[in-house]
Amino acid sequence: MAASTEQATGGVEKTAAEEKPRVLEPGAAPFGNFPHYSRFHPPEQRLRLLPPELLRRLFPQSSETRPILGLDVGCNSGDLSVALYKHFLSLHDGETCSDASRELHLLCCDIDPVLVERAEKECPFPDGLTFITLDFMNQRTRKVLLSSFLSQFGRSVFDIGFCMSVTMWIHLNHGDQGLWEFLAHLSSLCRYLLVEPQPWKCYRAAARRLRKLGLHDFDHFRSLAIQGDMASQIVHILTQDHGMELVCCFGNTNWDRSLLLFRTKQATETHPIPESLIEEGKERNRIRFWRQ
Ligand SMILES: C[S@@+](CC[C@H](N)C(=O)[O-])C[C@H]1O[C@@H](n2cnc3c(N)ncnc32)[C@H](O)[C@@H]1O
């Protein structure tokens, strides 16, 4: 499952093979499993849009609900997972905190075992982040691995899921139905969900890249009916079909990807959304889709 070296510009994921034909290899990244993804889509671009106190506000202190459990789907080699962990716990470089894993635990999964191995090796917070190889679309393994993790904490769902720059790869490889099911599983597994969908222009770039490498087109690219404004499409599926509501949009990255926070409607009945989050979002003009 080797992936070619990758660089990107202008928000469109692009292989280095496109830039320098001499390094062209017969292995694009069919699942978005680029070996150095964070070099061209750095975590900081996303983090600067997310309030560091977000999780503390969404999940106010209570020993019964500790630690906060997060699921990072499509974690690649873990750079964004670690950055999110540090960001939400306000940890600085080189700093470790003995209480950190009691505050927040992330289960991070990726389909590519080589990336997962690297993530495990390089993780500075092995007590707070667990990395596993998992094809999230494989129902049997997903059920076994996720339940086994959750049961260690006596839980049946995650507090929050992170789905960052993954939806396009699921969509291209599994079609409209696959994307719909993927979002269904995530919404049933997570009380809150932070999604960073890739815009449609990235789909075209990914398909073009594969053609340039002389590889097979994505099975589903030409038959996708869900297309166009992908952020709105995903908002529609999660809110109309999967019982979630849009809490806010934290803004757009340099790559024109929006960061959308959802939560299950059930959670809304028992835990109102913190007013401070709403006000802050309004002030920063970041809440575009508030309760459509
Ligand atoms: C473009 S990278 C995004 C990495 C990271 N989330 C970020 O935003 O920095 C997409 C990741 O999703 C993973 N992925 C794609 N399909 C997957 C699947 N079915 N199950 C688990 N991971 C998958 C890829 O291997 C790849 O590492």
Automatic annotation (TrEMBL):
EC number: 2.1.1.-
Domain Bin3-type SAM, residue spans: 53-274
Pfam family, one: Bin3
Residues covered by region (Disordered): 1-22
Annotated PANTHER family: BICOID-INTERACTING PROTEIN RELATED, RNA 5'-MONOPHOSPHATE METHYLTRANSFERASE
Subunit structure and binding partners: Interacts with DICER1; the interaction may be mediated by RNA.
Protein name: RNA methyltransferase
